Amino acid sequence: MVRVTREASPSHHVRGTVSGMAQARRAIDALQFAGIEANDISLAGEGAAAAARLADSSTNSGRSDAPIIWRVAWRGFWWSVWGAILGVSAGFVFGLSGLTLPGTSNSMALQIVSWGMFLHVGGAIVGVYAAITSGSAWELTFQPVEGAVVIAVRSGDVGRIVRAERVLREKGATDVRRDPAPGA
User: Which terminus has fewer CB within 10 Å in the chain: N or C?
Assistant: First the structure.
């Protein structure tokens, strides 16, 4: 989608070409870290068009990623079961001991149900976290998109354009060039 705006000040441009979307993502991250606003960055070229088509037609992940979802769900389920068993046991012990917080009931059933539910949810959270953080098992295979990507930065501030030009060169962009402001 092309956005047409009227600018109060002349706009400066810098553009550079990278080999694919992976390199473009690294360059965009570096540009934003250097203080360039996201709405001042635009992408064009064969790689950007392929990535847009892929984003419109899929979830950007491969079929090999489906087992990861099951791994997370399965671990969350089993940890929640063990948490519920531990919670029921703790509720039973607290119910027998008579230990309660001031102003609460000493009902055995309430103690068992409360502790069971609390540790059931806690177990699910721990299980999901353990599944997600288990190192190399958690590798989504975002489908690579090949093709040249042109990264363009527009700004009324020449200092930002100089910064953007430096960042694009540092991130391996080729054919980096600055277009002067209209009338300059």
Answer: N
Tens of pLDDT along 99-130? 776 666 678 888 888 889 999 999 999 998 88
Q: Is the dihedral of CA 59, 60, 64, 66 positive or negative?
A: negative
Q: Which residue type occupies 147?
A: G
Q: DSSP secondary-structure letter at 31?
A: H
Residues 6+ apart with CB under 8 A from 142: 60, 61, 62
Fold category of 12-60+142-179 in CATH: Alpha-Beta Plaits (3.30.70)
Q: Please give the Cα distance from 96 to 59 (Å, whole number).
A: 52
Summarize pLDDT for 3-45 with one digit per residue, the tens.
334 444 557 789 899 888 888 888 888 998 888 888 888 888 8
pLDDT band at 142 (very low <50, low <70, confident <90, very high): very low
The domain limits of the chain are: 12-60+142-179, 64-137
Spatial CA neighbour of 42 closest among 2, 89, 84: 2
